[in-house]
Amino acid sequence: MIVIYKKEGMYVMTRKIVLDIKALRKEKNMTISELANRLNKTIFEIKVWEDNGHKVSIKDLDSLHQILGFSINYVVFNNERNILSVRGLTVKQIQLLLKLIEEISGEEY
What we know:
The chain is mainly α. Helices cover 52% and strands 11% of the residues. The chain contains six helices and two strands, in the order ββαααααα. The protein has a two-stranded antiparallel sheet. A hairpin with a 2-residue loop joins β1 (2-7) and β2 (10-15). α2 (32-39) packs across α3.
């Protein structure tokens, strides 16, 4: 997911990785305990990931991908989400786009 926010008067775009570990675990009919054992983590650590969406390290993400069977490309580029690419746009075009998004959503980015 692309996240746009305003920082020190400038617009910043970043990519936020969204992963529903709980849903992926349940698709594999795996308990929290089983996943924790396979990752050499505590049940509490897995629950924190599932319930609070806390950051997962690259190493743990790789282990999760191997155990739960999702592709890293799915996590990074998540094709099911609507992502607007600004590649090839000028700064002025991006600014106009951000103003339009603000106007439509009623939120400031």
